[in-house]
Design goal:
single chain, 650 residues, alpha+beta, eight-stranded parallel sheet, 11 helices, 34 strands, 21% helix, disordered N terminus, disordered C terminus, hydrolase, Xylan 1,4-beta-xylosidase, GH39_cat
Length: 650
């Protein structure tokens, strides 16, 4: 089959706005205006052209196979060299043949539909109905290659009785490999000027709670850096012109970075937006806080500002700045974020990167900080032609695991550049209910597992619901991007990060079998230095139509561990009945905002308790039986071996 297809869906957002005033509510004019502006412009790409050198023509993946399971089909195929991902297509059948064109399977992530792995679980079809499936390789995010030969499969209807069983086996004595933690280097945040904001949202002081959320994610998850927008926005007063001459003032930048450093975090310095006095067109803005998206009117003055900022930071914070990353702009491949052409943005990148290196060539600079993995090829080709430095490649996607850009870096001569996904999440859509519930937590687990070992940072966007891109939060549960609510209550996604943080430093091999193994059911096993084990098992689908759960996708998991565990065993559960603030808020009858008593009840439940279990012990293997709903995750922890003479599991 022939044809080239889009590897992306509709990118609908993931950035900032300000409601203004005190305790802005649902009727805020600022929010309405920002929302309307965002909706009109977000789908418009700045430039859809591919890179100048073109992209490779990739053959379709070989070995496509389909395995039917209860309420799902698992597809798998062989890897294609130079592919950054794969796009799964489906067509209905008539008389055993495809009836109509193949279309990408839409799991409703709202952004990039291609996946980086060589497997895919489809739960969007009707059980018992056969479909034809075909897969294409993706060399660059805006196009895919030819579709391969199709296979036919139908998900099995659910039957009465217990859910299917998946056997998961872990060898605790295996040598293992270092466990990579892509969630730890970086997290996303509202623009840092909000740390200075004494206004309230939901009766809670914005700056104080944002700082508390950042401190919490540092303490409980081990996050090391924070990426945020708008460090050059006029609300921090970094640049103005007096009698036609530039004046730089980094006083308020110092205040916000001092607060960040006091929390044990370092900034990822996203260099943007444009100060109004330096903008060629200061009326071209985004969001209610009117971040200016214009190119500079004077390129030399822009370079002077960047050099002055970097030199000031180096003087104030010392050689610690050599460990900071400096990222150029945000999502210039969307018209909503860049009023110039692609060529002008390439000039912006080059001027900015050289200005950073003028201060100290050891400081890392990169980009393109693009939406939906765009412009990566174009930036690297530009850098090759001009000698512009690129120490890391940064980009964003939502709704799927991040693509594998390592082939692109090798192909374009940057094999050693770091890969930073400086924004990533379950949806790019503001005020989307998927953000608040348990299905987003299992999405996060699957994405982090996929990214481990192939990206340097996968930054979840964002840490707190004190976030104002399209207005301040109108209620406690409003589908906000935050991992933590206004009021400081953890959402399931935050609990998922805490589960990941409890994994050990050594990854152990896992073997799985049964209906749903290695797809619908995933596992990540680890060993701590003291011999204790932590095994994380979850049931998940990318299909957001199942965000409220599908009983037919639940699985019994029989976890067997051999070769080492000897202490007690505990399980920690995360699902709609455990750790899901939406469930608890519903039972409490929370309205837009909780009452004092409801706040107390929500805080009391803001934890995932570990519960002891009695495993089965036979033949040197410890077995734990689990019932895992969809969506759902279970962390099984085995204490270090007991001293000699103590019985296993007692």
């Amino acid at each position: 089959m022939t044809g080239r297809h889009e590897a992306v869906g509709h990118h609908a957002g993931g950035h900032e706005a300000s409601g203004g005033g005190h305790d802005a509510g649902t009727g805020s004019a600022a929010r309405t205006d920002a929302w309307g502006d965002w909706t009109r412009r977000i789908a418009l790409r700045s430039d859809e052209r591919g890179a100048a050198g073109g992209t490779p023509d990739l053959p379709p993946p070989a070995g496509l196979a389909a395995v039917a399971g209860v309420s799902h089909v698992r597809l798998s195929w062989s890897p294609v060299p130079d592919a950054v991902g794969y796009l799964v297509h489906r067509a209905p059948l008539r008389d055993g043949r495809p009836a109509g064109p193949f279309a990408p399977v839409d799991h409703q992530g709202g952004d990039v539909l291609a996946v980086p792995d060589t497997w895919y679980v489809d739960t969007t079809g009707e059980p018992g109905r056969s479909y034809a499936y075909a897969v294409a390789a993706v060399p660059e995010v805006t196009v895919t290659g030819e579709l391969g030969d199709p296979v036919v499969a139908a998900a099995l209807p659910a039957a009465d009785g217990p859910p299917p069983t998946v056997d998961v086996r872990v060898d605790a004595a295996a040598p293992g490999t270092p466990l990579h933690r892509p969630w730890q280097p970086m997290i996303g945040s509202e623009r840092l000027s909000q740390l200075l904001c004494a206004d309230t949202s939901g009766g809670r002081e914005i700056g104080a709670e944002l700082l508390a959320a950042l401190r919490r994610v540092r303490a409980e998850v081990g996050v090391e850096a924070v990426r945020a927008h708008a460090i050059l926005h006029d609300d921090l007063g970094v640049y103005r012109e007096v009698d036609g001459r530039p004046v730089h003032d980094f006083t308020r930048v110092d205040r916000v970075y001092d607060l960040l450093c006091s929390a044990g975090l370092r900034p990822v310095v996203e260099i943007g937006f444009m100060p109004r006095d330096l903008a060629r067109d200061p009326e071209r803005t985004v969001f209610a806080y009117r971040g200016v998206i214009s190119p500079p009117k004077d390129w030399d003055r822009w370079a002077e500002l960047v050099r002055a900022l970097v030199a000031h930071l180096l003087d104030r914070y010392g050689e610690a700045v050599l460990g900071w990353d400096f990222e150029v702009w945000n999502e210039a491949n969307l018209e909503v974020f860049w009023a110039g052409t692609r060529e002008e943005w390439m000039r912006l990148y080059e001027v900015t990167a050289r200005a950073v290196k003028d201060v100290d060539p050891r400081i890392a600079v990169g980009g393109p900080s693009s939406a939906a993995a765009g412009w990566v090829d174009a930036l690297l080709e530009h850098a090759t032609r001009t000698g512009t430095p690129v120490d890391f490649v940064s980009t964003h996607t939502y709704g799927s695991p991040p693509l594998d850009l390592r082939p692109t870096l090798r192909r374009l001569g940057f094999p050693h550049a770091r890969l930073l996904w400086t924004e990533w999440g379950v949806t790019p859509t503001h005020f989307h209910p998927v953000n608040d519930g348990a299905s987003a937590a299992t999405f996060l687990l699957g994405g982090m597992r996929s990214a481990a070992g192939r990206v340097d940072a996968l930054s979840y966007w964002v840490v707190s619901d004190h976030f104002e891109e399209l207005g301040r939060p109108p209620r406690l549960l409003h589908g906000g991007f935050g991992l933590i609510t206004v009021g400081g209550i953890a959402k399931p996604r935050y609990h998922a990060l805490r589960m990941l943080a409890r994994l050990g430093d050594t990854e152990l091999p896992v073997r799985a079998s049964g209906d749903g193994a290695d797809g619908l059911v995933q596992a990540w096993a680890s060993r701590h230095a003291d011999g204790g084990l932590a095994v994380l098992v979850w049931v998940s689908t990318l299909d957001q139509s199942k965000r409220d759960g599908d009983p037919a996708l639940a699985r019994r998991v029989r976890l067997g561990v051999a070769g080492g565990p000897g202490g007690g065993v505990t399980v920690t559960r995360l699902d709609r009945e455990h750790g899901d603030v939406t469930t608890l808020a519903g039972r409490l009858g929370v309205g837009d905002w909780p009452t004092d008593g409801q706040w107390d009840a929500l805080r009391a439940a803001d934890a995932l308790p570990a519960e002891p279990v009695e495993p089965d012990v036979a033949g040197g293997e410890v077995t734990v039986e689990l019932l895992v709903p969809q969506p759902g995750a279970v962390l099984v922890e085995f204490a270090p071996p007991e001293p000699a003479g103590r019985a296993v599991g007692l």
